[in-house]
C-alpha cells in the first residue's frame, strides 16, 4: 500500500485526504495528514470570507469553481458520516462587480469568458442596477456584473471539518505535529520529519501547508513563490436591511457582504503596504480611513454603521500570477504541491482535492484538466494572470 503524507490539514489537505480515501474499489492508500494545530487558529480555511464565485478572468478558475458549487450543493449527502450530515450554510445571492468607466472593457472581456463557460451571470447598466438594488448609489458606476446563481457564501470552518471528519471516517489518520523537514534520496522524498524527532515514512508527500508552503518546498530545494499576505476582515451592523444584498465588489476594490444579520467587509492593501508574512494584527486604521468612507458613499445606509468585530488571516499569495500551483515539480519525483490559491482556495478545494488525488492515483487528471496551473508555467515564465483577485 502506498503511503501518502499530507503536510497541512486545512481545507486543501483535508479535501485531498478525502478524495484519496473515497473509493474502496480503487487502489488503497495509507493516508496520514500532519497538522500542527488542530484548533486551526491561524489556518486560512478558518479565517476566510468563505465565498464562491464564477466571475473569474481565466477558464481554469471558472471551471474549478463550477465544480466547487456543485460539490457544495450536494455536500450534506456526499460528506455525511452516518447520521452526521454536515451543513455549511451555503446561500447563493451572487457576486456584484461594479465597474467605473475605466473598468468597463475588462468587465466585458471577463463576461464573455464566463458566458463561454455557461456561467449564470448578467451585465447591468447603472439604471438596471438601481432598479434591482435601490439602496445602492450608482455614482461613478458605468456597468455592473451580477451572478444570478452559483455564487454566494458558506461557513469555511464547517467545510474544513466536514472534509476532515469524512476523510478520517474513510481511514485517513490525522497527526497533530509540526513537520520540520523532508528526508530525501536522490530526486525523491522518503519521509517527513516531525518536531518530536519522529520521521513518517512516505512514498508520496503532498505540500498543503497554505501560507507556510514555501518553507516545505525549500526543504526539497524548490523555490515556491508563495507568501502569506495578511488580509483584515471587519464585521459591522447597520440599522437598515438591504434586501437581496449580494457580495458587492465596489469600484474602489473594497468588498462587503451580509453575514447573518450583520455585514463583513475587507480590502486589498496597496502593494507597498503588503509585506510578506506580517503578523496577524488587524489593520484597524484602514476601517475608518479607507473602508467606511467608501462604503458610505456606495451604500448611503452605511453612514450609520457600527464596527462589531474584526480578524486577520493570510492569503497564501502566489506572487508569480495569483493562481494555484498544483502537481509535481520536475525536480522531485513524488512531492506534490497544492498551494498558492491567492484568496480563492476555499471554493477551489473540491476541484484541487479531486485533481491531486487523480494525479497521485493515475499519474494524470481524469476529470478536470488542471495542467494550466501546473509548475510548468512558472518554469517557462508564462504567467496565467487572474485579473479578478479580490
Ligand atoms: C481573510 C480571507 C478571506 C478569504 N476569502 C476567501 C473567499 O471568499 N473564498 C475563497 O475561496 N477563499 C478565500 N480565502 C482563501 C482561502 O481561505 C484559502 O485559499 C484556503 O483556506 C487555503 O486552504 P489551505 O488548506 O491551503 O490553507 P490553511 O487553511 O491555512 O491550512 C494549511 C494548514 O497547514 C498547517 N501547516 C503549515 N505548515 C505546517 C507544518 N510545517 N507542519 C504541520 N502543519 C503545517 C497549518 O497549521 C494550517 O492548518 C480567504 C482567505 C482569507 C485569509
Brief account:
It contains eleven helices and 19 strands. The protein has helices at residues 11-21, 44-47, 59-73, 75-78, 104-116, 126-132, 156-169, 213-219, 284-298, 345-362, 376-379; strands at residues 2-7, 29-35, 51-52, 95-99, 121-125, 143-147, 152-153, 173-176, 179-185, 188-194, 199-201, 204-207, 226-237, 247-249, 255-259, 262-266, 306-318, 325-328, 335-339.
CATH superfamily of the largest domain: FAD/NAD(P)-binding domain
The level 1 CATH classification of the largest domain is Alpha Beta
End-to-end gap: 42 Å
- What is the typical, i.e. mean, pLDDT? 96
Ligand species: flavin-adenine dinucleotide
Q: What's the Cα radius of gyration?
A: 21 Å
Largest sheet: number of strands, sense, barrel closure: 8 strands, mixed
Number of helices: 11
Anisotropy-based shape: globular
CATH architectural grouping of the largest domain:
3-Layer(bba) Sandwich
Which strand-content bin applies to the residues? 25-35%
Would you give the CATH topology of the largest domain?
Answer: FAD/NAD(P)-binding domain
Summed up, the domain count is 2
